[in-house]
Amino acid sequence: MGLTSNKMLALAILSALVLFVGTVWLWPRLARRNWRAVSGRVGLLLATQLALFACLGIAVNQAFGFYASWADLFGTETDQGVVVDHASGGPVQVVATSEVHGMGGSLPRTAGQVQQVDIVGRTTHIATPAYVYLPPEYFQPRNRTRTFPVVVVLSGYPGTARALVDRLHYPRTAQHLVRDGRMRPTILVMLRPTVAPPRDTECVDVPRGPRTETFFAKDLPEAVRAHYRAVGTRGRWGIVGDSTGGYCALKLAMHHPDVYGAGAGLSPSYKAPLDATTGDLFQGDRQLRNRANLWWLLRHEPAPETSLLVTSSRIGETNYKDTLKFITRVQATKLTRISSIILDSGGHNFNTWRREIPATLQWISGRLGDH
Description:
By secondary structure, the protein is an alpha/beta fold. Helix content is 40%, strand content 17%.
C-alpha cells in the first residue's frame, strides 16, 4: 500500500477511530491503580496519539507531495535508474499515459495527454522518472510537422514530480491559458531536481558525484528533442520551479542562456545550502561553489542574456527581502531582464504557488519566441 494512496490515508483514519473508541470503552476497566492498569492507559493513549499523528502526516504528505514512497521517506530509495538500458529505444521510455483531468474529454487531440516517462542522460548516465504534458495541438493532424516550445518544470525538495500534475495542476493550467489565448501550446517536462535521490544535489555538477547541472543543461534537452517534436533553437526553452526547483531554474537560465531563454523561480533561494541533505556539494572547489551562488554570479561574471522571474510574498515568505535585493542586482546588469510577482501574503506552500503559476506560464510563454 503506497504512502500517497487514499487507501493508506483511509486505513490510518480507521485505525485512529478504532483506537479512540477502544480507549473510551476500556477506560473504566483500566481505572485501577495497579501497574497493569496504568500501563494499559499509557499504551492506549500513546497508540491513539500516534495514529492521529500518522493521519495528519499522511494527509499533509498527500497535499504537499514531500515523499513519493516509503523508501523515499526513510531514505532507502535505490531506484536511481542508471541500470535501465534504453539504448535500443532511445533516451525516453514512455511508461504510462493519462488524460488531463477536468478538460472534458479523453482523446489526446482534444484534451492533451500526460505521459509518465523514464529519461536517461546520454553523457551523465543519470536516469530519472518524469511526466511530460503534450497539448492537444500536438496530436492534431494539421500540426503533424509542427515543433513546440518546451518548459521544464521542477518541484522542490524533497517533492514529487507527480505533485506538479496533481497538486499544482501545471497541465490543466497551461491548457486553460492556451484556450484563453494567453499562452501558446507548449510541451511541459515535469520532474524533480533531485535526480539522484535521496541526495539533494541543488542542480550542481558534484565532483566525483552526480553531474546534475549537465543533465539539465545538456542531456535532458537532447533526450526530449530526440523523442518529441520539440524546438531546438536558442530562446525557445524555458524552465520554472518552486523552492529548490526555483533556485535551480534561475541558476540554469543564468548559466545556460543558450538553452533556457527564460527562467522563473517561485519562492526561490539564491544560493545552494550545505546541510545533511546535500552533503559536500563542492568538494573544496571554490570556483564551483562561487558559480552556484547567484549573488556572486551577478557581481563577478558577465550578465547572461536571458529573462528571469522571481516571486515572493510580503507576509509569509522568508525570502522577501532577498528577492527585492536580487531584483535590484539584476536590474543593475542592464542585460539580464527581470520580472517579479510579489503577493501581499502567502506562505511557502502549494496554495501560494498555484496563485502564481498562471501568470508565470503566461510570462514564460511570451519569452519563448515566435513559431
